[in-house]
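Schema walk-through. Below, the input block comes first and the output block second. Nothing else is stored per chain. Lengths vary across the set, and this one has 259 residues.
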Amino acid sequence: MINPADLPDDIDLLKAIVLRQQDQNARLAKLVADFKRALFGAKSEKSDPDQYELAFEEIEAAIEVVHAERDADVALRSAKPRKSNRGHLPKHLPRVKEVIEPDNKTCTCGAERHIIGEDTSERLDIIPAQFRVIITRGLKYACRSCEAGSVQAPAKSRLIEGGMPTEATVASVIVSKYADHLPLYRQSQIYTRQGVDLDRSTLASWVGKAAYELRLVYGCLLANLKQSSKLFMDETTAPVLDPGARENEDGLRLGTGPR
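--- output ---
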């Protein structure tokens, strides 16, 4: 709530605050109306249940926009900062220290200032996925004193012989597809933005090769599950938005090929 004592006396400034508040209320009202239509609207208007979380995120983001605008307004800013849950940064994350020092460390009297304390803050920094090329060089050795021939270490085995992906690359594709529900065509689009052009069919072949190699792991997991007296399963569906595919009666596009 806004403390009336913090409001300015200037009429034009008060009008600007009212107009801004009306705009914020209109945005929030639209988000709430969209969410209600998704929950209680007719079948043709309803969204997939998995889209509810998106509506919540939009509402929360809009609320934070309101808070940010309020904090940026000098006339409404109070001496006590607004409390908010900024999350917790785990201790196992690597820390990169950044030291900020004043430009002039010499006092007006001519003496050198010394450190008497410091203020420390932590921020979460994310480094986007980085692509790199691993070059493997197989060195050949031969004797200069005789002609006994050359020796060379055998090449290391690969998950996909003659292919370009490393095991870590294939694992990343599989985790993104099955754990994060990120279809292969979307992964292909993400790689393209990084300048790496990979067709969806290429990614699908990697997934198929990995599935073949994981048969033993699959068999062990299945055998272990069959020893349990009870099995529980999460059958929540994950909607697939496949460009060019047909739509069902609820307006969701149904994928037909590998995702």
